[in-house]
Amino acid sequence: MPDTINPIAQALGFTTSNNLKMNGTVNGISVTGYFQYPEKAAAAAFTLTAAIPCPASFTIRKEKKSDVFFRKTGFVKELTSGDAVFDALCYIDTYDNEFTSQYISDRNRRETIRSLFAVLPGISLKVTRKETAVSIRPCTPDSISASQVQAIIELMPKLTQGVLSLPRLNDNRAKIIDGAFIVTAAVACTVGILALCIGAIRYTVDDLSFAGTGALIGVAVFAAFSIIAFFAVRGRSSSPRVFLIVALLGLFGFPSGGAGIPILINCATDSGRALEYVMPVTGLSRTSGKSGTSYYIHTGHWKKQTGLTWLRVHRSTFSNTRVGDRVILSIKPGAWGHEWIESYRMVK
């Protein structure tokens, strides 16, 4: 080990620097030093890590907008050291040319960190649930001195004093997820509502009308749960948010879209030529409800060997129709094999 590294070891309270890993205590701070020999690195290098226990709790507050060190990050709340969101609390990388301490709000803490960076440019800071760790990245002996190491150690206790302004973890990613949440819910609701409206104005009570109703119910539940989940997990780790999005899409979003989109596409194919089928009337029925009485005539399906098609008709048509009469169905082609009844007319 070159003698030029010995002053660093002496500043840390070690009597020798021949061992690869050194542990010690300086000013009440646990310090670990690592040496790298030339055969393991381009040059003899040194890494220092010192851990400081975190206080029991931090108060999180917003800074004024005029504070250049602050970026708006989310809700204001108080966290204790036991909260899961305390993980990966703060990470400042000083290899960036500009000093950005958007995670540190207290002026004294900012000045302390600024002093640390002024002492040695190769330093990085990471605050976790249990400790504040300051690391000096591998550097050659010529770039660090014993006085610099001692100055860093003396400044480190000040890092646990003051107030932290915590961001939501992965803030940019959370914003993207938030936006995707809202857009997905809005699109799903729009598709479902349009599908229901289109299905309601058709004369048929075939599969597509039920698909339209199911689409509306699905997107309504999806939208409701999405809004609840959006506020429930806001400001926390993005993992629960991603899980909820996938779960809600799988349970409600995709089924609703799968039911509603074909109906919308069917509507868009109105310009296609309609095909006419002559079908016999196989039955008649009526239903009563709060909105009045609805009248239906039953025919077989125009393509399927089995199946029943209900046509909602006017009362006069219902009264003048008998089993065995014939009805001409005008069928429009739709998406993925779906078809819908454009119109009908009775044949005597």
Distance between the termini: 109 Å
* Helical stretch tally: 7
SSE string, helix = H, strand = E?
HEEEEEEHEEHHHHEEEHEE
Report the β-strand fraction as a percent range: 25-35%
Biggest beta sheet summary: 6 strands, antiparallel
Shape: elongated
Radius of gyration: 36 Å
How many β-strand stretches? 13
- Secondary structure class reads alpha+beta
Poorly predicted residue ranges? 1-6, 14-19, 40-44, 52-107, 125-132, 136-142, 159-171, 202-209
Helix content: 25-40%
Q: Give the rounded overall mean pLDDT.
A: 58
Describe what this molecule looks like in 3D:
The chain has a 6-stranded antiparallel beta sheet with strand order 1-2-3-8-7-6, with no helix packed on it. It has a 5-stranded antiparallel beta sheet with strand order 11-10-9-12-13. The relative contact order is 0.10. It starts with 5 loop residues before the first helix and ends with a strand. 35% of the residues lie in helices and 27% in strands. It has 7 helices and 13 strands. The chain is of the alpha+beta class and 348 residues long. Helix 4 packs antiparallel against helix 5 (207-232). It has 3 domains: 3-160, no CATH class; 171-268, no CATH class; 275-347, OB fold (Dihydrolipoamide Acetyltransferase, E2P).
